[in-house]
Design goal:
The structure is a homodimer. Chain A is an alpha+beta fold. The first copy, chain A, has helices spanning 29-38, 93-98, 119-128, 130-155, 160-174, 191-198, 202-214, 230-236, and strands at residues 39-44, 49-51, 59-65, 68-73, 79-85, 90-91, 105-108, 112-118, 184-186, 218-221, 224-227. The longest helix of chain A is centred in the middle third of the chain and has 26 residues, at 130-155. The structure holds a DNA duplex.
Chain lengths: 240, 240
DNA sequence: TGGGAGTCGTGATGCTGGTCACCGGACTGA
DNA sequence: TCAGTCCGGTGACCAGCATCACGACTCCCA
C-alpha cells in the first residue's frame, strides 16, 4: 500500500519489524490488539507539524517511519532543536500523561508514517494494561535522561566548539560508527540547523567547521563527513 | 520521635499530612501498606549525599522533610544546579526505572527525612500495583517537563541577566507570592550557588544584583529580597 | 534562461561575560 | 583575641561570539 507521500505503509503493529525494539511494539498480544483498535495510522509529508509547543495535548504520536525534528522556540523567534526523533520513538507522551501543554514542537523532516492515539483512548488503554503503563514509565525515564544530557551539554560547555565536538561525537555513536577509528556520517542538516542544535549562530558553525578542516580533524565530501582525528574531537569536547 | 539531626520524624505514609499532594502519599490503602513494608525511613544531616551522578541506581528516595540540591557536574569541576527539591518529591526515580546510572547528584541542603526503597523492591511493587505505576509515569512526565523548561532557560537566553530575571520570577511564583505586585522572597542561596543555577560566574551574579538594585528593580534586606518592579523583571526575562 | 530562494563562506566591529587579583566584613573555633 | 574561612564587592583585561553586511554558488521553477 502506498500513501499519498510515497511511503509504503507499515500495515499493523502486530506485524511491525520493530516489535522487539520499542514501546508498543513489544507487548502481550491482548494489549497489542487493543492498541491496534485505538490507533489511527496516518502519513505526513515533509515539513508537516505534528504539534506545537503550548498546545493542549491531543494525544500521542508513535513514529513508525521517517524522522521528526523536536524543537523549542523563544518569543523572539530563536529556536533550539532538541533532537531528531527516529522511528520507534513516541512523541507527545509526557504531555499526554501529565495533561500539561506540549513542551516542544514536532515537525517532520522526511515523509513520515505515524500512529496517532487520542489522549482519552490512550489513558484508558494505560489503565487497562499495566504492562503498557510500565513501558511508558520506562520510555519517560529515558526521555528524562536525554533531557539531562542536553542540559549538561548546553549548561556546562565553555565554548561553541566544545558543543559542536560533543554533537559530532554523539552522531558518530548513534550511527554505530563509534567503534571505528574514523567514523563516517551523513550530514543531514544545514549549518543553520546545527547552529540551532548547539545554541549558536550559523556563521559560527561555518567558521568552526572551517577550523576543524584546517586542523585536519574532519573532512567533508559532499554531504558525508569523515572524522579523521576522533581523539582531538574528544579533547575539544572536554574529554567526556 | 527525634532523629539524630533534630528532625521530628514523620512516622508513616499512612498518616502523612502530604497524602493528598504527592506520589505514594495518595494511593489505595492496599498499595500504601505494601509501600510501607518496603520503605526504609532514614534521616540525613545537611550536606549528606544521597547519590552521585554516574552511580548504578540503588533505589528511590522519597523526600519527606528538608530540601535537596540536585546538580550535574563537569569533569573540570564546574557544576550546574538543576533545582532544589522540596518535600514530596521522589529522587532517583528515572534511574531506578530505566536501570541507567543516576544522571545527577543529590545533596541535602537541610537536615532531611527520606524514605528509601531498594530498586528491586520498588520494581516489584510497581508490577503489583498498577495505580502506582501510573503515578510514576505522571511524576516522570512532570520531571521531563521541568527539564524542558531548564533547557529553554539555558539554551534560549541571550544574556546572564535574562537568566537571572527568569530565576527570580520563578522563585516568586513558587512562593505563592506571584499574585502580589511586590513579591518578597528569602534568599536561601549564596551568589556562588545562584551562579551555578544559571550557568554563569559568581562575580557576574554579584554585578547583576548590584545593577538591579541601582535600577531600583529589587531591594535586599538581610537575606530577604523584595521585587519592586516585577514588570521590569519580566522585560529582562524576555517577556515570557 | 534568468531570477528567486536557500545555503555557505568571510571580514569588520562591538559587547558580554569569564577570569584574575585583591579587599573588607562576618563568622567561627582555638 | 586572633587567625582562618567563607562570602560579597569591585576593577582591569581580553577572548569568544553575535551581529551586520556582503558575495558566491546551487537548485528549481516560471
Amino acid at each position: 500500500m502506498l500513501s499519498p507521500y510515497g511511503l509504503d505503509l507499515v500495515e499493523s503493529c502486530l506485524t511491525c519489524k520493530m516489535r522487539s525494539e520499542r514501546l508498543f511494539c513489544d507487548l502481550p498480544a491482548a494489549a497489542l490488539q487493543s492498541f491496534e483498535a485505538i490507533k489511527y495510522a496516518t502519513a505526513y509529508p515533509r515539513g508537516a507539524v505534528l504539534f506545537v509547543e503550548g498546545q493542549a495535548p491531543r494525544g500521542i504520536f508513535v513514529l513508525c517511519k521517517g524522522r521528526v525534528k523536536l524543537s523549542i522556540c523563544a518569543t523572539d523567534g530563536k529556536t533550539l532543536i532538541l533532537k531528531i526523533a527516529e522511528p520507534g520513538e513516541v512523541l507527545g507522551l509526557s504531555a499526554s500523561v501529565s495533561g500539561k501543554p506540549y513542551e516542544l514542537t514536532a515537525e517532520t523532516v522526511d515523509p513520515c508514517q505515524v500512529n496517532f492515539v487520542k489522549r482519552e483512548d490512550f489513558l484508558r488503554f494505560l489503565k487497562e494494561h499495566a504492562e503498557a503503563c510500565f513501558k511508558v514509565a520506562e520510555q519517560l525515564a529515558e526521555k528524562y535522561n536525554n533531557a539531562c544530557h542536553e542540559v549538561r551539554a548546553l549548561g556546562l560547555s565553555h565554548s561553541a566548539i566544545e558543543k559542536l565536538a560533543k554533537l559530532l561525537l554523539d552522531w558518530s555513536t548513534r550511527n554505530g560508527e563509534a567503534s571505528k577509528p574514523e567514523p563516517r556520517l551523513r550530514m543531514a542538516l544545514t549549518h543553520e540547523e546545527i547552529a540551532q542544535m548547539i545554541g549558536t549562530s550559523r556563521e559560527t558553525v561555518t567558521r568552526l567547521f572551517a577550523d576543524l578542516k584546517k586542523r585536519q580533524i574532519i573532512q567533508t565530501k559532499g554531504s558525508t563527513l569523515l572524522v579523521h582525528n576522533k581523539g582531538a574531537l574528544k579533547v575539544l569536547a572536554g574529554a567526556v
